[in-house]
Task: structure prediction
Amino acid sequence: MHIIKSFISITILAVLVGCATPVKPGITGATEKLDLGEDTLLLLTAELANDYKPSYQPEAMVLHVETPNAKDSKDRLNFLADNEGTFHFPTGNKYIFRARMKSGDYILRGITGGSGIFPVHGMFFVPLHCEISAKKGEVVDLGKIIAKTRERQGNEFRAGPVVPLIDQAVTGFAGSTFDIQMIPSTTEELQQIRTLFPILKTASIEAKPLPPFNRDVAQKWWETH
Result:
């Protein structure tokens, strides 16, 4: 049964985001040289909380970025969450993504993850759907995302899929939706990032916070996907 549930969860994840290329964080605490060349480094903080079912706090797996009109795996990038950028709290979890990519135009699609332990494990998807422009040689701070679940009303997009029925119901992701804020990073938060990743201590970081969350766009995407 556990194997079947794991297979279903993996299948759901594939359906949610399509085939994509997994990418490790662009920098770590041990990075000694920041030579971006034609690339850019994007910094994004995400604070996730399951207020609907507090016993199952969201654990991020990947940040999804894709090119406009993405067609195959090379057009879709899955930036992996890692221990250095992960912080656990009783009321939610915090993630600092460091996404290095080639310069160009992209869509910040969302964040996928899960919650729970055997025998219950649910999956979720935080929709973002933001257009971003990456310029070569830049380190860009996209600000902070705050996403919290609440009970779903009417036909609002779900925080996660419906199946597996028991897992998604118990963890609350099938019966809830995400309320999402996109705000600039504070001076203290940027200082924390520089401290965690010393290679950024003297780096010039451009602040380009994401626009306000567009719930209508997220709803339409959910209805068609």
Summary: Residues 1-12 have pLDDT under 50 and may be disordered. The CA atoms of residues 112 and 125 lie 4 Å apart.
